[in-house]
Specification:
The protein is of the alpha/beta class. The chain is 36% helix and 13% strand. It contains 13 helices and 13 strands. The chain is globular, with a radius of gyration of 22 Å. The two termini are 32 Å apart. The relative contact order is 0.17. The protein binds pyridoxal-5'-phosphate.
Amino acid sequence: MKFSCTEYEFAMEMDAKDELSSFRELFVINDPGLIYLDGNSLGRLPVKTAGLIKETVENEWGNRLIRGWNEGWIDLSKRTGAKIARLVGAREDEILVTDTTSVNLFKLAAAALSAQSGRDKIVSDVFNFPSDLYVLQGLKDLFGRNYNVKRIPTKDNTTIAKKDVNRIIDEETAIVCLSHVAFKSAFMYDMAGITETAHSEGALMLWDLCHSAGAVHVDLNGCNVDLAVGCTYKYLNSGPGAPAFLYVRRDLQEKLIQPIWGWFASRDPFEFNSDFNPAEGISRFGTGTPPVISMKAVEPAVDMILEAGINRIRKKSVKQTEYLIYLTEQKLSQYGFRLGSPRKAELRGSHISLQHEKSYSICRALIESPSPAVKVIPDFRTPDNIRLAAAPLYTTYAEIHRAVQRIQAVVEGKIYEKYSCGKLPVT
Ligand SMILES: *Cc1c(COP(=O)(O)O)cnc(C)c1O
């Protein structure tokens, strides 16, 4: 995609022609002086969700009390999973909404390792989210099986070469566990190709979809993926700490057993048996009582994405990240910014990373800009990345333009120098 105009009017024209523009009104957006480019970390609040949570608390909990379990709560994990399944190319009984991504990763990775006895290699990469790497490292000590966690290296800090993947996956490999879209650089793997490589060596493939679900095409069945996990609070807009999801391909469900034998993984929790008997199907990957209130937020948010359609979402996301790259090249490269994401759209998720030696202070200056200057919320990822995300349901081209203008003003006027000390606990 080629752009040749840096004028604000051009951004406005693209918004006027944008066929997804009407979705923005479906979100709570109260501050016109705030540009939110952090939808890959915490998505915005849909208007419908605010009403639904109020109704859940006041009516379902307040009035229906324990009866709520038989009036829809008990099936919520599976019902919500079936919705997400449509978004990621899975069958409706292959996804369960439960726990956090980290816990789900633990459950599925441990289940897969037990099924792969005799193989002691776990393959991940240097881009993977730390929590994923920690969970994999923790498995090694927990089961005392001397698993070896190998990380595929990067040559350019931005992408991972297919031949490095091929070199590391071998007949010793039990599982391959990768993030489909890398949280820092936004590098996106070829899911079909890597899954096939893993299978050709007899390994099971576990994808983390945290930065993909709701933003890029995912076809779990089409790629014959074994296992997957993902969160719902990023591009799925389901709110802070909303429960995560897990996917287990249908034919594997009866073959795997996960290590947390909670009552919601058992065949009939309300029989209160003293001995564990795993549930059939996807339910056996559950744990304990589901977080009903926060899970309620998932369905309306996923409905919006299904309505917009992932094709249109991805098309706009590509155009918006291309536009961001174009504007940063035109307006920011002269101030020492470098692109820390793949230049090719097909290798990139829905955000870009800009690198600069003063990235942390620049981020703070953007977030804390005093009015009338516009406030911009990106996020900072160590050591020097400013992440800027396009969330196509609510991000506008005009916002992207104004954000780049503001970044330029912050570096040109050295406004960031005021913010050069001490980091906040959450970046
Ligand atoms: C956000 C994210 C997580 C978060 O895990 P939680 O356990 O839900 O906090 C895990 N993996 C990746 C790749 C992420 O981007």
